[in-house]
Amino acid sequence: MNVRTLVVGQGLAGSLLARRLSTTGSVAVVDPGQSNASLVAAGLMTPLTGRRFRLTSEYPQLFARARVAYTALGVFNPVTVYRMFADAEQRSEGLRRSAELDCAPFIQKVTDIPGQLSQDLTDTQGGVLMHGAWVDLPRFLADTKTWLGERLIKDQLHAHDIADTPTGIRWKNITAERMVWCDGWRAMLPGGLFSNLTWQPAKGESLDITSDAPAKDFVLNREGWALPCGEGRWRTGTNWDWEEQGEQVTEAQRKKLLARFHGYFNHPISSTVTSQAAGTRPCTRDNRPYLGQHASRLRHYILNGLGPRGTVWAPTAIDHLESFLEQGLPVPAELDYRRALLS
Fold this sequence. Notes:
By secondary structure, the chain is α/β, with parallel strands linked by helices.
């Protein structure tokens, strides 16, 4: 197989990039076919995040670009997200943030008392109902897998197995002009071309459940999230494990996520777990992606480190990498992976 671009990884970044670059040349993707962080992620885009309800300065532009990109792919769904305050301190911070002018376009309602939005919730400190979006990542990844067909190679690729030649790259029976590494947390493993970057991997898990919990037309959010999927189905997550990496699900997190979901409601509910998934987020220190060209192996590039806000970052990051690959325009300094080289 001869292609112009070989993409490593069929998560969100690799799938979007493969579709984009296919408009200017042939593309193939190699992926081991295991779980990945994109399958575990909620696919939610929420404006005010973190303990301090922070709205990052780039979010409005990132959200606008992401809405266009995902709408074109048929996986963009506007939703409202009810961020319930966890305690009085967070309530104070949340109320302050939600009153700021730059946050106003994303705020639908601020609740002052429990039950103001829904009588069956444990929002004892109130909360903020925000305009956001849900991107159907499982559907998008499945659609991309079908779209790739034989151009998706199910295999594990290692940098030491690749031969760089004057005319291109050779790996097994594939030749390519260039490679883009979108391999998520595996990029930090020993021997990887970009393992010498500052990575902060965080494992997360999610559950698909059926429940008799009251139906909602908004996402529940408090130290985690619960996405209503209709007909008694919910998807809920997630946790942050900074010590362990991989895709192995755990009983401890299963119990924790179920307890958190049940804790959103002020009366007993029942629920059954139908599936559980785990993945490791390739986080960076400044929560911005890594883009660019390898310093010595010039046919190799990176698009990685999308982290906890990967859904909103991915389309813009790919815009910049495509401009670099096809037009030679420089990668913005704040996204250039060289900012994170280990000394």
